[in-house]
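4.2 Preliminary Data

To establish feasibility before requesting continued support, the project team ran the inverse folding procedure on a target of 355 residues. The structure was first converted into the token representation described in Section 3, and no sequence information of any kind was made available to the design step. The complete token record follows.
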């Protein structure tokens, strides 16, 4: 695992918040909601309007997931060091620069300890770069990526019906200010007691519909488990050069061509919930209690060396049928037959689902 694994660590909290709101923010045109007395459904529907937004800003992330601490010194195995780096990203505060020019041009920069990691998307071309490791990855996306992401557009009425469903209580919007911008904030609270998630608070720009801050609080805890938000934000198209990337001559470059991948089929949901296709996960449960499962053989614990086994022992505890780790928001269960189950639920729920 290279230190470029910082990307999941920084993006994961956003994905968690996005997964909560995803069924609610399918493409739908809507007017800005400034100067009105909007409903929660109005605020949620306005997010779709920000898909073509142009802006640059600084994001701050803080996380307190209750993860175990590992040594962070330069000594020891590279596996331990890399895992410690990723855990540090998940348990400490970090900032990143973000540049966005519509739906298909984005750049995220994380700078720390005289090193820089970047993710740059320009249309169907995506680059990742790690200046310390001197490694770059070039991914060519399917040509219909942008189109497929817009399939299945719904109306604001459809979005409102999905937003206020049987599994979630959605609060009345309140006014807040984030990075100098007026925003509407809504709070989503699971009705089920079977999830580790307590609440998700989402602040949305009143003028543009752009989500400005997401705060996830674990059940039974007062302080946020994860918070990601803008500390500065300027609207307008960033310089075009920011989305052009050429790796240095001495960089190690890995090419991944996904242009012929069956992107459309996956994007349109051709893989039904519970279906299995190769290494695709299967899903059980609903809403906040959904559990994802990867098949037997995904993780072979018997093949791990001493160092990797020791690291696994620090991160997990023995449970019936395998090993598991439970953070304040997410649990992961590794079964003895190599399956991996994960969800925003207690470990006991994963063990029960695996039987």
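Position-by-position output of the design step:
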């Amino acid at each position: 695992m290279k230190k470029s694994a910082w990307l999941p660590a920084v993006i994961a909290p956003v994905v968690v918040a996005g997964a909560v709101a995803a069924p609610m923010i399918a493409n739908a045109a809507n007017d800005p909601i400034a100067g009105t007395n909007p409903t929660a459904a109005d605020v949620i529907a306005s997010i779709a309007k920000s898909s073509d937004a142009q802006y640059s800003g600084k994001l701050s992330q803080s996380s307190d997931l209750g993860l175990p601490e590992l040594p962070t010194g330069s000594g020891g195995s590279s596996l331990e060091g890399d895992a410690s780096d990723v855990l540090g990203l998940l348990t400490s505060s970090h900032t990143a620069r973000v540049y966005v020019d519509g739906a298909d041009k984005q750049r995220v920069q994380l700078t720390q300890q005289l090193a820089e990691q970047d993710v740059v998307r320009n249309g169907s071309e995506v680059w990742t770069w790690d200046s310390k490791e001197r490694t770059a990855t070039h991914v060519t996306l399917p040509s219909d990526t942008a189109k497929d992401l817009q399939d299945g557009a719904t109306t604001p009425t459809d979005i409102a019906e999905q937003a206020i469903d049987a599994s979630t209580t959605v609060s009345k919007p309140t006014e807040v200010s984030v990075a100098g911008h007026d925003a509407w904030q809504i709070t989503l609270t699971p009705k089920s007691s079977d999830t580790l998630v307590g609440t998700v608070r989402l602040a949305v720009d009143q003028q543009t519909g752009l989500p400005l801050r997401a705060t996830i609080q674990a059940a039974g805890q007062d302080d946020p488990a994860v918070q990601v938000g803008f500390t500065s934000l300027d609207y307008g198209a960033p310089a075009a050069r920011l989305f052009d990337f050429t790796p240095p001559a001495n960089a190690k470059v890995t090419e991944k061509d996904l242009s012929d991948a069956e992107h459309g089929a996956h994007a349109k949901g051709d893989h039904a919930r519970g279906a299995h296709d190769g290494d695709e996960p299967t899903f059980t449960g609903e809403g906040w209690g959904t559990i994802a499962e990867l098949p037997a053989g995904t993780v072979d614990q018997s093949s791990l060396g001493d160092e990797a086994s020791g690291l696994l022992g620090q991160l997990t505890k023995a449970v019936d049928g395998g090993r598991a780790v439970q953070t304040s928001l997410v649990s992961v269960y590794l079964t003895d037959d190599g399956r991996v189950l994960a969800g925003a639920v207690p470990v006991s729920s994963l063990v029960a689902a695996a039987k």
